[in-house]
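Board notes (copied after class):
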Amino acid sequence: MTEVRVPTLGESVTEATVATWFKKPGDSVAVDEMLCELETDKVTVEVPSPVAGTLSDIVAKEGDTVGVDALLANIAESGSAGPEETKPRENDAETSRGSASGGGDSVDVVVPTLGESVTEATVSTWFKKVGDSVTQDEMLCELETDKVSVEVPAPASGTLTEIVAQEGETVEANAKLAVIASGEGVSAAPKAETAPKDTQYSTPPAGDGGPGKDIKDGPAAEKAMAEAGVSRDQVKGTGKDGRATKADVAAAVAAANASPATSAPASAPRAPVAAQDEAREERVKMTRLRQTIARRLKDAQNTAAILTTYNEVDMTEVMALRSEYKDLFEKKHGVRLGFMSFFTKACCHALKEVPEVNAEIDGTDIVYKNFVHMGIAAGTPQGLVVPVIRDADSMSFAEIEKAINEKGKRARDGKLSMAEMQGGTFTISNGGVYGSLMSSPILNPPQSGILGMHKIQDRPMVINGEIKIRPMMYLALSYDHRIVDGKGAVTFLVRVKEALEDPRRLLMDL
């Protein structure tokens, strides 16, 4: 008997409501077939079947509220090899294992642990092909999750005899990726019926007579197709075994809208122009990281009452202090003295006076944090990531600079772990490095505040009745107005301004 439990629902989400059951007790289910749909405060979560078998009983009924890892149902596993669409893969795996001459053992390559709250990944790139020799710990492939890329090393030396999960496929934690035949005299035996490798762009849609003809799309995709008036044969499935996803439906709708309607005579004259434009376009599937960034930013706008307040800071004193001590600082601590440590210290100082900016909303409660885990937004070739510097309020200037330097390098190299990007209480985003003069940053949920830094620009300022040229920077604080009032937001920004215009206040704790 296999238990079906509530999956991880996301950071700060602890419970959900059972919205719909798509199966009833006694129904046969296939692996990954959708069993039910859960609703949280922010998103809808589909629960797939972990095994093939028969749904023996439903524990949590529709309308019930359930916590993370709560029991939803039980499935009696079938004694057969599984659903029809999985048999070729299993049989091929056995054939591949049996073809290894010389008595070599078969070693499965499985998806490694992906991190807290991450249950699936997409196979991004295979560095080896069937028949290649591999050595232990040599990189076989790269997986892409919502936030990070994960390299999968070879667990043993030998020959790659089978690739189970092709590029573009979505795999769950601990799923089998490939098979390695280890031992002397091992020879590869690729599958006889192997066709040209499918990618996320060539996976046949369900219902076309191909491998996915008996695959049932997820309820969310079916609902999206019904609402958009799109037929299944218009959607190219990129999910597991050719299943259609909501993103696939959106892509099909966008493609249909972009294409000229052949049935409308009025659009005929525009066809050559559209064809020329289409020839110059390039369609690239969004990475999981980019999809997650887009979803979280939109969720923040839909959920929080975001308001932005602005101020400006005279950077004269900070620049003078940095110029005076930067060589000595680097010689002693082995790291350059930048502006980020000043801003981090100033924010930690201001958060002590205005703690609601460092708090978060959890249901009907406000959770105040007596520490500062500072998120430092960093742009990378893969997209925006926010590594977290933990307990930044108790760190020195040198410790902060070292942490920022190390996290930034790991972010650019795509080596950040999930744990390094979770748990932040406040975020600093420096758009000034790209030349931004003014912007309104978007919150990083569930945080309630984010400070936007901008370009330092010489401007004429009135100082003691005289016009002087000063290096000025605009500051922007975006905050959640549900928890932070205007007075608190303005006070926070003023304290940051005061600390930067007179850094001695940081030493005096003023």
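Comment from the instructor: The longest helix spans residues 316-333. The chain has a mean pLDDT of 79.
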